[in-house]
Amino acid sequence: MQFKINPKAISESGLLVIPVLENQKDQELPEVLKNQEIPSPIFSGKKDSSYSFRSGKQLVLVLGLGENPSYKDIENSFRRILSKHSALVEKEISIEFPEHFLAAQIEAALVGFQLGAYSIGFYKKEAPKDFSKIKVQVLTSLPKPKQLVERAEKIASAKIEAFKLVDLPPNKITPQSLADWAKNLGKKSKLSVKVFDAKKAKSEGLEAFLAVGRGSAKEPRFIIIEYRHSNPKLHLGLVGKGVTFDTGGLNVKTQGMHHMKSDMGGAAAVLAVTQLISDLELPIHLTTIVPAVENAIDKDAYLPSEVIGSHAGLSIEVIDTDAEGRLILADGLSYLVKNYKTDQIIDLATLTGSSIGTFGYECAALFANDGAVSHGLQEAGEEIGEKSWPLPLWDSYGKEMDSEIADIKNYHGKPFAGAITAAKFLQAFTHEHPAWAHLDIAGVSFTDSEFAKTKTGSAFGVSLLLKFIENQL
Asked: Is 253 considered catalytic here?
């Protein structure tokens, strides 16, 4: 897309989009459209409503946003333009924002508009419509509009990367392809990227990580990305679960396996937000770790009842090979704590069905040992529309993970508190880091939405982490 800001003359050949708040359409329509009467029973600006008409040679689409729209509401409203009204858009489009629109509202609109160009039809014979060459005129009275547009472009680009990483099939997104993605990012953004193969991971003591990948012909990759700023305000560590496909291992899944390409939604989020933080040049240090594996089945697959090692030095009794995500995260967390002095650590993982049983598909399950981090993530999520809600980390739940033969077991095998006991397992590998949070995003990273006929990636975590970081700067 080619953005032009505050052009001297609005093109009359393309589509003009005007967002309005409920019951304020008469005040918000620009002067050129004052003579156009829009009957209130037909359109009053209610949330998710729209009205189109011609004004002279100009085709106009008025978007209703409701009385007090959230960031996510605005993003979705503008995403519909290209996703659902693409026939209205040919070569040019103008977006005119009312004077009272805030920067965050315009950002949400421009991000959503660009997300509307995304399609999962990667392998269709008839390719989806290409919007890369359309000209977008942005009209706003806000100061520094160029920076606002550029920021929205970077956010949208990161979210689309997160979409792709989750939506592409598992023969395309493998541990090696995630490693290649990180290396390419490093070349473009001058980041430091290290990738451990199986031999190097063995020498580093990443035993739990390696155990999960033993059954796959696709060798695991342990990815480390370092972003450094000359004047950092904090050092954040991120760990993302990168199971590129999950059969369940020898405890093979009995349903829903065709969705298991999405089991690297945590990795997609932390990789995309790493790209975004680098693009925005935020004043922090960031260390991102993605343990990337495929949990498959062959003669070498790890077994239920095996006792395996870990980077932290704890022995682990394997109760269930389908509780694999916590094993690779355990080594990722331990490696991060032992090798980097981070102020805060956040891991994101599509970890448990239990989190869906608790919260459905509305929010992530949040676990944190630090009140400031917990409240910060909740607040950021409310602001940006990627919500989380806390669950306890009481020691009594940790006893459920006691093993008779090893230091800890990877699954308690009981039909309760699954998300909590998984979080307690992870906590055992954080070496008592004082500011750690775990986001179980199983219900929110790969979802049904109005923008596709099948489940697709949501990029949950990208905007959340950006807002969480910027709220601390």
From this structure: yes
